[in-house]
Design goal:
The structure holds two protein chains of two kinds. Chain A is built from no helices and eleven strands. Chain A is mainly beta. In chain A, strands 2, 4, 5, 9, 10 and 11 form a six-stranded mixed β-sheet that branches. Chain A has a five-stranded antiparallel β-sheet with strand order 1-3-8-7-6, with no helix packed on it. Chain A is globular, with a radius of gyration of 13 Å. By secondary structure, chain B is an all-beta fold. In chain B, the strands form two sheets. In chain B, strands 2, 4, 5, 6, 9, 10 and 11 form a seven-stranded mixed β-sheet that branches. A four-stranded antiparallel β-sheet of chain B has the order 1-3-8-7, with no helix packed on it. Chain B is globular. The chains are: A mainly beta, B mainly beta. At the A-B interface, strand 4, strand 5, strand 9 and strand 10 of A face strand 4, strand 5, strand 9 and strand 10 of B.
Chain lengths: 110, 114
């Protein structure tokens, strides 16, 4: 059974800092690795999806990488802003059968 | 561009009551799923469907029923609500055309069972 872990559970950084969020998974035979953002009391917004054959995906200030051999994915956020404050979730799976990590709550302070 | 729509947004039930959480998507997606989100446990899959007339159980199906009579709708039924079902429920959809497609989520239903 796939297990997904995100450490740390919470992270606080000053505005402008570059940061990395970590996601680990136990089964390297993955379909996709998807990163989501969740604002308090809201639904999940898809940020990036990395297919199993890919190594990374980029969107604006976000870059997600995938290393199946080590069972890790990272989400890199460049030049962080207060508006980036949210919980970031990673999930492994295909279609809608996703296995989620418990998330990293990010706070970007002025 | 409605995407995935869930109703209601909030609900309080008494133990033993039944109710249906509604989910509708307008993207013609084949895949639809229900998850629950509990503090410290992440999202867990309850039931999912790969098309009209086809449903299957996820990780935590007990106490919930689903049916998929149309492509657009995927309601989740609580048969006899229990306090352990207090949670935030999310519906999601994605395209079946290629398995490597992103999932789209609704805004959630916050359910409290007293």
């Amino acid at each position: 059974k796939q297990e997904v872990t995100q450490i740390p559970a919470a992270l606080s950084v000053p505005e402008g800092e570059n940061l990395v969020l970590n996601c680990s998974f136990t089964d390297s035979a993955i379909y996709n690795l998807q990163w989501f953002r969740q604002d308090p009391g809201k639904g999940l917004t898809s940020l990036l999806l990395i297919q199993s054959s890919q190594r990374e995906q980029t969107s604006g200030r976000l870059n997600a990488s995938l290393d199946k051999s080590s069972g890790r994915s990272t989400l890199y956020i460049a030049a962080s802003q207060p508006g980036d404050s949210a919980t970031y979730l990673c999930a492994e799976g295909g279609g809608n059968k996703l296995t989620f990590g418990t998330g990293t709550q990010l706070k970007v302070e002025l | 561009n409605a995407g995935v729509t869930q109703t209601p947004k909030f609900q309080v039930l008494k133990t033993g009551q039944s109710m249906t959480l509604q989910c509708a998507q307008d993207m013609n997606h084949e895949y639809m799923s229900w998850y629950r989100q509990d503090p410290g446990m992440g999202l867990r899959l309850i039931h999912y469907s790969v098309g009209a007339g086809i449903t299957d159980q996820g990780e935590v199906p007990n106490g919930y029923n689903v049916s998929r009579s149309t492509t657009e709708d995927f309601p989740l039924r609580l048969l006899s609500a229990a306090p352990s079902q207090t949670s935030v429920y999310f519906c999601a959809s994605s395209s079946l055309g290629r398995r490597n497609t992103e999932a789209f989520f609704g805004q959630g239903t916050r359910l409290t069972v007293v």
